Amino acid sequence: MSTEVRRGYVPSDAQEFNKESLLTLKKAQEEVLWLIERGYPIKGVSTFVGNHYMLSERQRLAFTRATSTREILHLRKEKQIQKVIPGSIVYIDGLNLIISLEIALSGSTLIRCMDGTIRDLAGLRGTYRLIDKTDGAIRLIGEQLEKRKVNEAIFYLDAPVSNTGRLKQRILELMQNYNFKITVELVNNADVILEKLSNIVTSDAIILNRCISWINLAAEIIDERLPEVPFIDLRL
Q1: Other C-beta atoms within 10 Å of 126: how many?
Q2: How far, in Å, CA of 103 to CA of 167, rounded?
Q3: Which one is predicted more confidently, 100 or 122?
Q4: Which residues of 42-58 are buried (b: 16+ CB within 10 A; e: fewer)?
Q5: 157 alpha-carbon distance from chain centroid
Q6: Cα 180 vs. chain centroid, distance in angstroms?
């Protein structure tokens, strides 16, 4: 892992998310929001509006991931835990959290979304590999969980994704000296487990809609520990 890797870096982002492009993107986002508030499906809307403004696939992905109806925003806000009770168990969407922090440490594109989460534009496609930012991301998580005084952190990693076994061992190695219990589970589908739990850590929109309660840990870590990290603000 000695080679420097910028997770999520795409050279065209500098042009596609510059000040001029963001004006168009936000105008498109406002129209997307207007349509989905009236019941139109986000997939069809993103295609229709994206074609009208001649947006790239990453620009469309950005406003799709950032935009939610007021009803959904209210649902997520009601379930969000602002202060974890000391001694709690937290359940972590491991790849979701670690990849977002790797991207933050890489200085690559992150989106500040309407629900307060920070999301990336990366896609796993069944593959993952540890990079030079992985250890830093894991340590940031450990330090924040210790600050929160949790009793136990349970990471869920998708076993079908490559190298999650190696990631599991790295998490266990780096977190063994913190003052909380650490467990890492390799499972076939982390989403279906997390969406039934409380005190979950993720920015995955579907899980947020279905879970009992959630913690916005990635945004908290980035805001407190990595305030210099740039992001695209798509909060309308």
Answers
A1: 9
A2: 16
A3: 100
A4: beebbeebbeeeebbee
A5: 14
A6: 23
- Which position has the token pair 């892992």? 1
Q: Are 150 and 87 in contact (CB under 8 A)?
A: yes
- Quickly count: other Cβ atoms within 10 Å of residue 124's Cβ: 12
The whole model's pTM is what?
0.94
pLDDT > 90: percent of the chain: 92
In the chain, what are the domain boundaries?
A: 13-67, 81-233
Structural contact between residues 115 and 76, judged by C-beta atoms closer than 8 angstroms: yes
E-only strand ranges, the chain: 89-93, 110-112, 118-120, 152-158, 181-187, 200-201, 214-215, 232-233
Strand 110-112 to 232-233 pairing: parallel
* CA–CA distance, 142 with 195 (Å, rounded to integer): 23
